[in-house]
Amino acid sequence: MKQLRYDTVVIGGGAAGMSAAAELKAKGYSAIIIEREEELGGILMQCIHNGFGLIEFNEELSGPEFAQRVQEKVSALDIPALCGATVLDLRQEGDSHVVYCVSKASGVVRVEARAVILAMGCRERNRGNIRIPGSRPSGVFTAGLAQRLVNIEGYIPGKDVVIIGSGDIGLIMARRLTWTGCKVHAVVEILPYPSGLTRNIVQCLNDFGIPLYLSHLTTEIYGQDRVEGVEVTPIENGALMFDKSFKIPCDTVLLSVGLVPENELSKNAGVEINPATNGPWVDSTLMTSVPGIFACGNVLHVHDLVDFVAEESRRAGSFAADWLSGKRPRKELRIKTGPNVRYVNPARVDPERENKLYMRSMVVKNGAILEVKVDGRVVKNVKKPHVQPSEMLTLSLGPQDFAQAGMDAQVEISIV
Amino acid sequence: MGCHLSIERLSEHDIAVTGNRCARGEQYAREELLSPKRVVTATCKVGPSSIAAAAKPIAAASAADLSRPRRVPLRTREAFPRERIPDLLKLIYGLELRLPVRRGQVAVADALGTGIDVIVTRTM
Question: What ipTM was predicted for this assembly?
């Protein structure tokens, strides 16, 4: 068995893993990236649409362009990557973390490191997760799988398509399939508001006159060998109105019904999971409940912009470098999520430095205010002209905000 | 993300924009309402050296054929007039690029006489 030893092992070679590894190497620590696919880049490689990089590169790039730019940084820093390798286990052996992975080229490889960065990304929720009744014909795909088929493999999954869920990948696929010559008949969303970005509603649905059914549930999928149609039922005041159900004939159904951080490995390693994000609980330095294991990107919580993933992952890399050098925060304050806030990540702050926080609203609201309280006293108010659950919010809190915070002060963030 | 803009229609060819926090907002609103443009992204065929492999039925293709790149991702260098997108797609789908290609390489110069280039977005 091949044995390797580095300061850090980064699991996952997408935007998150590459960004974290580059930061670690730039701070003088060795890192190796383990990637399942044959090439670095992660999910960006199949996201051939544009809209990436406005914050990171001040340009609108496609997914592969963004990925390859980050990858060039990784190459310039001479960071090794083990591609085509699947991680089987992450465990502690003595004082080190050990990753076992297997690849066609190298067989089983044992990598020992003092620190680990989890950057495995997320997975799509599928038909089983949302329990759509009906038969089980072929022609039901998750949107991301269809995206891979069309953009990488060069196959078209069907001709007449209904998309369930208004997540960004579904909206992007509505445009991609229309541009590929398919007819997209409808997007069906259970919630009263779309769960994708506004720009995607405009450019992927409105441009093509694709109807978006809000507050509608798909109550049946028809078809024996192949999908023949779906039954859609409106929801009024929380009740399904079966007398108003209608059928949309189609041969293909795409599901864009949310993403779940991919934490099977993390759980096996004893990392505690936050039920609000489905990602690990992390401290103010993005370190999980297992000392030396850090998490960033979509494995920590699902982001809507890769620019935020890259930013967060650089921070994780930098915090891991601090940890390797023996630096620890002297004091941490816990953040409580107040009214209308689904979660705040990380859920702890170090009152002695600047803290960048990402959070999600639970409500759609115009003229909202992000309110930060320390021990019940308002220390910061940030005006947000518009908040909605699908658009992540950012906030910075620094020493000036915690000037009068005691040892066990409680920080509460709410949207009012 | 971004700003929420308010638009007042002054005439058929003019609008007033408020709510923007930078000049890009006003320019975007004008374009979006008066002559919408989109960055077009699509893929084209890989050819002609690997065309024999691509033409074989899937069952007969070897594992190496399956892992060979099948599509090259492309985009317009800048936003492209929306009403001409169907013609542009026809042009892109008729294209075959021989590997290797470099990111940023021009695949179609001055597409349909618009002055806008179509470029490769992945080195492969």
Answer: 0.88
